[in-house]
Amino acid sequence: MCGRLNVIDDPGVRELCEGLQIQLFPNRQIFSRFIRATNELSIVRQKDGIRRMDNAIWWLLLEPADTGFKPSKYTSFNTRYDKLNFKGSAGYQAYRHSRCVIPAKGFGETEFVNNKPLHYHDLIAKDGAILLGGLCREWVNKTTGETALSCSVITLPPHPKLMHIHTKASPLLLPIDLTLVNRWLDESITDTDEFTPLLQPHIPYDLTAQQIDKPSTYQPVSDPTSIKHD
Hints:
Blueprint: E1 4-7, H1 11-19, E2 32-36, E3 40-47, E4 50-58, E5 62-64, E6 69-71, E7 78-80, H2 92-97, E8 99-104, E9 106-113, E10 116-125, E11 130-140, E12 147-156, E13 170-171, H3 178-185, E14 207-212, E15 225-227
Parallel strand pairs: 4-12, 7-12
Antiparallel strand pairs: 1-2, 1-9, 3-4, 5-6, 8-11, 9-10, 10-14, 11-12, 12-13, 14-15
């Protein structure tokens, strides 16, 4: 699944953020048409009982650098659903103690064949915005004392409606249901059994898919298509 997100300053994205009842914005929210893995993006999490929006590095595993942190050599912008309950995996503890959500307008998928890109697609919410389920981790540089926040998007098996776009995985798209989101963000919930039904491919809202020339220029190369919610 995707290594890029579309988080434009869109009324639907702002409305979704307002609906998440965020109490604290320590940093300015990041808006960009093209956020790629290792960039910073804005996530919503709960810490010490407070719902907050923070900016995090989109790469769950970090390592100390001369100043602060840098992305680890181990790829971790996505966390696979089947690793969440595997003790010792990068996402095991985060799934139990620091789940987050990522409000966005859409996401991008690249299909590879023999490690070469075959085609690129952008998918956006037809109305409003999307909500991705993710994980986050806090880091402290023991030498400098600097701190960092990192995150990943949880990925699921491929969705049948998206197989013509991406055949290997699909993102965890959470329904925009405040009760469910409250439970997902609740740091006191460490028994994750109740979230197991979410780890099946599901499209909770209508999407528009557009094939593009490449992510950096995102010029359409075909007519957009509609993907209906499940």
